Amino acid sequence: MYDPIVEPYPQSWQQYPDSYWARSITTFPETTSLVNDIQADVAIIGAGYTGLSCAYHLAKQYGKSVVVLEANDPGWGCSGRNAGFVLPGTGRLSLTDMEVKWGEAKAYGVFQEYMESIDCVNDFIEKGQIDCDKTPGGYLKLAHKRAKVAGLREQAEKLNERYGESVSFVCSKDVSRSFLKSANMYGGIYFDKSFAVNPMKLVLGYYQMATEAGVKTFSNSPVINWQSKSNHQCLYTQNGRVTAEKVIIASNGYTGKKMHSLVNNCHFPVLSSIIVTRPLSSEELESIQIKAGLMAMDTRRMKYYYRLLPDNRILFGGRGAISGKKADNPKHKKRLTEGLKQTFPILNGIEIDYFWSGWVSATYDNYPRIHHNKDKTVYYSMGYCGSGLAFSSLAGKRLAQSMYEPELLPDLPFWQSPLRKFPFSRFRRVGLSAYYTLASLRD
Ligand SMILES: Cc1cc2nc3c(=O)[nH]c(=O)nc-3n(C[C@H](O)[C@H](O)[C@H](O)COP(=O)(O)OP(=O)(O)OC[C@H]3O[C@@H](n4cnc5c(N)ncnc54)[C@H](O)[C@@H]3O)c2cc1C
Which residues form a coiled coil (predicted)? Predict the structure, then answer.
């Protein structure tokens, strides 16, 4: 599998992973690759939610000519292979962490932005009439140990004061009564605004909306070279070149090791993996009683996340391998099946029909950035950690605003500083390996 820490960019002509989502698409859009020299106001690298949302807003709202260059096909990165949780959050900071770091007002401002990111996905779905199997069901963050309950309860109570019923604390009895029956869960925080989608159908919907707005997307056209001139930027692909006033890096976890000095060594691509079971029998469903559309994640350091799919399979995800070379090693699939068994003992031994992985982008200080170089010709948005579906959709819009209407940006830390470089970046993987060992002991 492509490895962003080792390789400079993803090779072209790679298939989508054999995922449940890719199999759900009957006809993929016909795309072309770049084979000549063209010009645009803005060139965007990466056709996932970030790049396509930004492209759409630049074309639709600001009338810009926009070219998107994608190494493979739209949604080939994380956007076509995630779990489809539309969540109020990104990064790894809790509300309490944010209050300590930025004070109460900013922390709530960030949470407001998270809620808006869900509205942003909804707007896309409504405007583009995207048929992405949207299923309301809410998001439940579950304590996997009694010791985690108090923190979740405190967060829920604070958020409940501001957002009313849409955020609430649920005790362990209510979890089993209304949400799911699982081993070892001790209550949690419930966000009822969250919903589940088919992420591949969603990203292809964004692609279609961007195309209809006049955006030109070229697939199988990785950017392999980049020259910054005094008044323009040149991006080179194998067979063509785009000259643009401004460039946006929207390659997130798939950003290769030498993309641009603004982002090199400023993020850490980490693998997350998913298994999907065969459809559950009615006895199995009766035993686990998981609510349709519900998305659940636990409080482990190495989190498990899961949901029931529309055809009654369980999607179950968690950490993946350390390197791209080992991504498909069966031991990672086995680790997830163990996690599934711990969560729902009745599913011990169930057949697994799908297993795939993707690169999420972690940052040094656990939250993403939407930033630019000094002369505002190169912009980026990245570092959503494991949860960027909703946030990257809004980040695309914010990127467009930060270029052409920066006064509209809410006063939040995401766009007020650049990404921080990882110290000793060469040793990131050694650190990750040690972290995984320690975390599994502590979990
Ligand atoms: C297994 C898994 C499960 C997840 N589940 C969830 C979830 O349920 N909810 C949630 O909120 N988040 C989830 N995420 C995270 C979420 O999917 C991402 O945060 C989000 O999709 C990021 O979108 P993006 O557009 O920024 O990047 P991507 O969708 O990764 O797109 C980046 C694109 O850039 C392209 N690219 C890279 N380099 C070049 C180059 N040199 N030239 C041209 N193109 C290039 C890549 O080919 C890629 O298609 C999950 C991630 C994974 C891996």
Answer: none
